[in-house]
Amino acid sequence: MASSSVRALRRGASACQAQALDFLVRGLPASRGVLDPYLDQHESSSGVRHAFNLATRGGTPLVVKTAGGLSAATGFIVTIFGSTGMLGRAVVNNLAKIGAQCMIPYRGLEDKPRHLKVMGDLGQIVPFVCNIRDDDAIRAAIAKSNVVINLIGREYETRNYGFEEVNIDIAQRIARISKEHGGIVRYIHTSCVGADENSPSKQHRTKALGEEAVRQEFPEATIMRPASMFGYHDKFLNRFATKAKFWPNVPTFFDGKTKVQPVCVLDVAAAFLAAVKEKEGIHVGKVYELGGPDVYTIHELLLWMFEVLREKPRIINIPLPLAEAVSRVREFFFKRVPVPLPQLWPCYRHYIDSLKVDQVVSPDALTFEELGIKPRPLGGLATEYLFYYREGGPHMGQFRL
Ligand SMILES: NC(=O)c1ccc[n+]([C@@H]2O[C@H](COP(=O)([O-])OP(=O)(O)OC[C@H]3O[C@@H](n4cnc5c(N)ncnc54)[C@H](OP(=O)(O)O)[C@@H]3O)[C@@H](O)[C@H]2O)c1
């Protein structure tokens, strides 16, 4: 212990206060164990301030401890990559609610993370621009953190980013730099149900390789594999419902026989929170497959959706050769023309390939149950957003004219 903290102890300060002082004076502590955010949460009844109120690096306090809840500082300083997406929105909200400080690296316009700022107290949500191809930018993004969550992913390739780069290279880079950091006590990586090196879908193949790369760099990483997520901002039910509204029929492949296990985004975010908050490290190094309570074929799902929309089902099966021909034309021009091409959903390769195998939780996988969460079924509040696609407005059928 440094002489400054010995002097502080003699003056009657607690051991933790002494360690905090030690840390402030010397920068990094001799053992990072003293900055464990799991020591004590936001119970402030003891009135003691702990060393984990301080940044793990840099030597200056980032936040102060307060009474609990949103305004508390629980000692979790979490960098969330990919937080501007659908899942990120729910994950940041959950973390902010327990008083974690959220570092929000983002790309593009400064309005991108605007909706996240209001989820926490002043200074609790910290957005900053980050170039994910730059190691130093990632180092800066995680410098003060003790938890890292990587949510980066896309279900299609763009002209600038292919699946290999997004799902493997970026995942590996973040994991490697987090390991180098030395003070990351929880690392959570996001993959997807169906991630398999032998999958017909390139997205699922690269997700599997990405998991492997992350495990090599950061063996303690917890890997979350959500199934298709539904929620207010999803690109799953919203997409089907948009087609139901504007197209004569909703297209499917393989007669809609592919099985899916839709899961609510709020339940997936709850799983992330459980993995961060858990004190004993029982989720460390494990893979969780997060699916909803029910399995549907795409056809059944569409029938359910049309029922919610209060319309007669209009579903059309697209012959595979036709869809593949369209997708091949798009692929040919994809990087040959100087402008982004429309996705031509559903006739693009990755979507078609992903429907060739069922996207359901494997029987021997760890699931929500091990995380202590009961996932909610389709319907109710979680899918009320579909009402807005009703032909006669959201309240159609509720009033007599
Ligand atoms: N949605 C699902 O049904 C589903 C199912 C299984 C697994 N997952 C996985 O769960 C994670 C989150 O899904 P989501 O639905 O929240 O996705 P999303 O809404 O598309 O958001 C993806 C996030 O990743 C970021 N991102 C994507 N490509 C990037 C790149 N090249 N460089 C930097 N940032 C990039 C996006 O940033 P920008 O906003 O700047 O683009 C956004 O913040 C992903 O890894 C996804 O693969 C999703």
Describe the structure.
The chain is of the alpha/beta class and 401 residues long. The protein has a domain at 50-233 and 260-295 and 367-377: NAD(P)-binding Rossmann-like Domain (Rossmann fold, 3-Layer(aba) Sandwich), CATH 3.40.50.720. Helices cover 35% and strands 12% of the residues. It is built from 13 helices and 13 strands. The protein has helices spanning 3-10, 15-26, 86-97, 114-117, 135-142, 163-181, 202-217, 237-246, 265-277, 298-309, 320-334, 349-354, 368-371; strands at residues 77-81, 101-106, 125-129, 147-150, 186-190, 222-226, 229-230, 250-252, 259-260, 263-264, 287-290, 296-297, 315-317. The strands form 4 sheets. The chain has a 7-stranded parallel sheet with strand order 3-2-1-4-5-6-11, with helices on both faces. The chain has a two-stranded parallel ribbon with strand order 7-10. A two-stranded parallel sheet has the order 8-13. Strand 2 (101-106), helix 4 and strand 3 form a beta-alpha-beta unit. Helix 5 (135-142) packs across helix 6, helix 6 (163-181) packs parallel to helix 7 and helix 8 (237-246) crosses helix 10. The longest helix is centred in the middle third of the chain and has 19 residues, at 163-181. It is globular, with a radius of gyration of 24 Å. The structure holds NADP nicotinamide-adenine-dinucleotide phosphate.
